[in-house]
Amino acid sequence: MAAQQRNMDVVADNLANADVVGFKSATATFATLGADAQLGTAFAGGRTSFVQGKLERSGGPFDVAIDGAGFFAVERDGEIAYTRAGAFSRSADGRLRNAAGWALRGIRIPADALSVTVAADGRVSLESPGHGRREAGRIRLAAFAAPELLRPAGTALFAATQGSGPPRELPAGGDRQSKIVFGSLDGDPCRAARLRSQCKRRASQRRDASDREQFAPQLRSLRLHAPFGRRECESGGEDGGALMSEMRGNPNRIAELRTVVVDGFAKMNARFDGLQSQFDGLESQFDGLESQFDGLQSQFDGLQSQFDGLQSQVDFIASAVASHNESISEVHAVVVRIERRLDRHEHRIERLEDRERRG
Predict the structure, then answer these.
(1) What does DSSP say about strands 151-154 and 157-159: parallel, antiparallel, or unpaired?
(2) Domains in the chain: how many in total?
(3) Does 44 reside within a domain?
């Protein structure tokens, strides 16, 4: 029961975080206790699956996603973690940070940046007044020999372990290499449905395990006394002969065992019906929440479309302002040249006037 409870905890955590950007679901692993699992099973930890989700256009000014393998390296208070969640925003110090305050390593965006772009190989370029377009750093990806053995360090965050191996830099942007996609996030609209199916399967397994543990004494008694166990009773174990003598001398023993088995299965069915009813209720609640989520997702898509339109307008205005600033700079340079020429003409006039007064 304890192992199955941990299994359900893992599934519940997967379901609760199904819509978190960059979250990767885990699968519980178990170890058998005793020969042929006679003593049951024990929870042996979780294993994270880093299967890539569907890349979704986010429109965020600093959002990035990884198309392929690899992790973003982030840091906070001297600690380093790794994530595939690329929802970042610019902080006051120019660092790109996620909602938990973890900063993307090696990148700073100045406050006067008019626009920012990220190439597939991670090169970050920005445009600022007076400097034009320039490179501001490079986002580097990290890879591990055994990423499934990374240790969870928070929501969508992971830390290196001895089993995962140390991080190594992963080239990006080339043919057959991972690519960094600007303005998108790692999402998976089908994850909730898969986790729902997983939750049903795990609940069924949990019921089966619970029933096996509850009725284990009756089943063991049945294996010891049922007719198909006669050969074992006659030839194996020091009490085998005595047991068979008891069975021959007490014909009512078989009837008693049959009653125990029938009662046990009746209780098992009643318990199963109760658990099935509870599960149906939870499933109905989940369907309602899923319907609400679909409605919110539709509203979000509409707002996202409006935001994309506004973002396009902002980009156009920023481009126009940049062009206007360049025009102003050119006009200013012309004005400076004209002022210099006027100064030279004024000096000439003053010299001519001095000559006329002297003459």
Answers:
(1) antiparallel
(2) 1
(3) no
Q: Is 104 exposed, middle or buried (0-12, 13-18, 19+ CB in 10 A)?
A: buried
The pTM for the full model equals: 0.48
Range of 63's domain?
54-186
CA-based nearest residue to 265, from 304, 324, 214, 310: 214
Q: In the Cβ-directed half-sphere of 124, how many Cα atoms lie within 13 Å?
A: 22
What Å distances lie between residue 130 and 1, 10, 63, 335, CA to CA?
Answer: 67, 53, 26, 18
Three-state SS at 71: strand
Q: Find where tokens 């969508």 sit.
A: 156
**Distance set, CA 65 to CA 60, 70, 87, 106, 291 (Å):** 11, 10, 8, 17, 28
pLDDT in tens, 314-354: 777 877 777 777 778 888 888 888 988 888 888 888 888 88
In 93-190, which ranges are continuous DSSP H helix? none
74 lies in a domain? Answer: yes
CB burial class (10 A; 0-12, 13-18, 19+) of residue 98? buried
In a domain, 318, yes or no: no
